[in-house]
């Protein structure tokens, strides 16, 4: 049966994990890792929403949200760098997706 085949693969460590596909979550690679998971059909393509804001001192700050369809949560981050804000919320989303796989 399918259940027996799955149990065999599981107990013999033959199942592919997300880590086998993209490696463990890496802050500097998180955007690419999420995109690779989407391209391989494991998740929907991530969507990033940006907004430029000002902090209390009038300094520019980037707010970014990372959404992946069918995921329960979305993640957001703020930084003076648009790229760093995107990396942070992509990294948080990637960690969440990896946690979901382990359940």
| Residue-averaged pLDDT | 90
End-to-end CA span = 23 Å
Oligomer: single chain
The total count of helices amounts to 4
Structural category: alpha+beta
Overall outline: elongated
The unreliable regions are: none
Percentage of residues assigned to helices: 40-55%
Rg, alpha carbons: 17 Å
Strand content of the residues, in percent? 15-25%
- Strand tally: 3
How are the strands ordered across the major sheet?
Answer: 1-2-3
How are helices and strands ordered from N to C?
A: HHHEEEH
Q: Main sheet? A: 3 strands, antiparallel
Structure, explained:
The chain is α+β, with helices and mostly antiparallel strands. It is 44% helix and 20% strand. The chain has four helices and three strands; from the N terminus they run αααβββα. The protein has helices at residues 2-11, 18-22, 30-39, 82-101, and strands spanning 47-54, 60-67, 75-79. Strands 1-2-3 form a three-stranded antiparallel sheet, with helices on one face. A hairpin with a 5-residue loop joins strand 1 and strand 2. Helix 3 crosses helix 4 (82-101). The chain is elongated and about 65 Å long. The model has no long low-confidence stretch (mean pLDDT 90).
Q: What secondary-structure arrangement, pairings included, does this model have?
A:
Elements: H1 2-11, H2 18-22, H3 30-39, E1 47-54, E2 60-67, E3 75-79, H4 82-101
Antiparallel strand pairs: 1-2, 2-3
Helix pairs in contact: 3-4
């Amino acid at each position: 049966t399918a259940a027996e085949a799955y149990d065999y693969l599981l107990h013999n460590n033959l199942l592919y994990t997300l880590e086998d596909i993209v490696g463990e979550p890496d802050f500097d690679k998180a955007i690419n890792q999420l995109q690779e998971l989407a391209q391989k059909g494991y998740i929907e393509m991530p969507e990033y929403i940006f907004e430029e804001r000002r902090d209390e001192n009038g300094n520019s700050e980037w707010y970014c949200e990372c959404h992946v369809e069918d995921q329960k949560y979305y993640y957001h981050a703020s930084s003076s760098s648009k790229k760093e804000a995107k990396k942070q919320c992509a990294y948080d989303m990637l960690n969440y997706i990896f946690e979901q796989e382990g359940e």
